[in-house]
């Protein structure tokens, strides 16, 4: 047997990156989450070639202080929790401190950032985990991450990427879902210099549904509302007339986080079932607000899975708020006037 040795940091980061960063869309998701956590209210995402060669994310959030920059790129470094106890009430989207170290291990990263207190900003370049440049630069408050040549040093990973068009569509998809999760943030998405999405950030969920999914869907949704002791439900569900043959339009969010949950999917579909044919799925944009101590988001590195301490309450609230509204509604499609 060979001698047992601890891997070097860079190798550790590359291995970890395999879990967090599967494809360009994961980079976009992680960096947008960071911008949201930094309290940005305008976030721009620009990509080229499906994000494989170029992803730039600009926010107007709080920026990263000069002294924090190097630390931010270390694995398990975070400003969002201090101990395992804080996992009981995570209120930020990030908390694992893995995104920046992972991305920097497998791409060429340039960061330009300025905090409100500083006169000048900092430009920091790190490639394949190796620091290249750290210099002062004039720039606006907030943060810009430029990620070039994802997986350039992990060819096996790169081979698994799909075509640029497909990768771009994954990115568009995740941005749309996040935009619906934060109606108060203006999102702009550009692919190959073309604007694909631009939301106003005016806080109105229905406006975003209209903006992203179009008039037919926006004029055929009904508002869902309800609350129990620990669960608030708010959002929109599509009338059966706009039900679909797949689950792509089933979106729900817990405390502003886009997640997948078997319990919520089931509650939605069971409530919807008697109003539509089998194998038809609803459009939903539903926000749940649940106290942090009832949920565990530390289930998977991508933070897309979630566990509830109050499964029955969550299921019941989602089920009943949808069922009640559908039962009471005239479900014929809204009349759209032909001009
Ligand atoms: P996490 O989000 O889990 O804390 P990350 O690796 O994504 O870990 O980021 C590390 C740290 O870098 C964050 O905790 C945050 O303090 C800082 N950071 C990252 N992106 C931004 C940003 N856009 N604006 C301000 N701070 C940021
Ligand atoms: Mg993060």
Automatic annotation (TrEMBL):
Residues 209-327 form the DNA mismatch repair protein S5 domain. Belongs to the DNA mismatch repair MutL/HexB family. This protein is involved in the repair of mismatches in DNA. It is required for dam-dependent methyl-directed DNA mismatch repair. May act as a 'molecular matchmaker', a protein that promotes the formation of a stable complex between two or more DNA-binding proteins in an ATP-dependent manner without itself being part of a final effector complex. This is DNA mismatch repair protein MutL. It comes from Anaerosporobacter mobilis DSM 15930. The gene is mutL.
